[in-house]
Input
Amino acid sequence: MKKEHFSVYNHSLIYGNNRIAVRKFIVLNHTDGTKTFTDFHRFTGNPNRKIKSFNSDGDKRCTYICKFLNYAFFSVGISSLSELTLDTGQKFINAYAMHELPEDDEYTKRSESTIDFCVSYIFDFYTNLATDKHSKCHFKLSDLYRHISVRNKYGKVILKKVPFFNVEYIPSYKVPIFRDMPNKAFQVLFDHIVDRHKDLLGLVLNQAFAGLRPSEACNVRRPDSPLGAGIIFSEVNGELLGISIDLKEELNLRSDLKNVGGIKRERTARVPDIFLSAYKHAYDIYTEYMKDRKYEKDYGAFSVNLQGKAITYTSYYQKFRDIINDEMIPIFLQSHDPELVLYGQTLMTHSLSPHVFRHWYTVQLVLSGIENPGVLMHLRGDRSPESSIVYIKNKGDLEKQFSRISNESFEYLKWASEREHDE
Output
């Protein structure tokens, strides 16, 4: 039987032209399966940001706060927020950073940036409680800070106010996220998707050839969607000049109001010229597959499940992982190509997620000659240039690992022509 615990409850709201907004609530889950809604979400926001977008979903703050509440209520034993002390918050942060929470084990890993987020969100939670006149907490806002002596730029000793919470980290030996995929492996995987899992092809082509994040790929609409064309082809006299994807609004794409995933940066994404032919060829394969298959016409999602509803990011992620573990690893290991065998062996000890397609897309752009971080940032749909700068700085290493492609095309076209010949 599951123990009582706090968790996040997502509630979807529809407004305007079928736009979707998600509101997060913190609920107490009882052992009999029932839930009690709390008002704890009121204290999770950033106290310094009084105005926020209506369709903001609260980021991951509630998730961190639920972990803290589970610790405070069920490990420490408080019965209400009014019993919270600063010591409880400090002990939780230390346990979180040192991997000593009740649910942690020897496999638990947390990066320093993750711990920093946790500290920040817990501090904001305490700040909101301290400034709320109805919380009945026994600490004041001034208790959340301590003063230390520092020298300013003129050499004068001054008192600096720093947050009460501090943290000691376990030395980080973080294993980098595994995202690399040789072009040979990409073609084998892509071919397998086309042959065995065409229901995912729409998602994969929007990631590999347009650089969308997995959750953004789930938000793509059909060209004939009543909510507005999601994919726009620009043609003149039968010649394909460009393809763009409308990600300007996060809309509801399912009759059950289930959120398919977020759009990290609302925009119009453009398919780079080197991928135009590849995108169109894969698009034609997918749309032929979708003929006479049901989908919810009121929404017109591009990628749908067998019930005709838009595929969610969670579903996509799990199915992709199953394909890699159950199907692709054996295929790679049984290959006569040593490079593919080695890749299969690597996947046996490394996890691979759908983000690999966006990484592969970025690598191909860098190897095709893009060296301007601003251009790469625009094509990736990033808010800042940091990620693009890392790719460009590491171009030399990428050239050693990946086949170079020209500005006009890449090896996919060879795969496509061979496939058409076989058919």
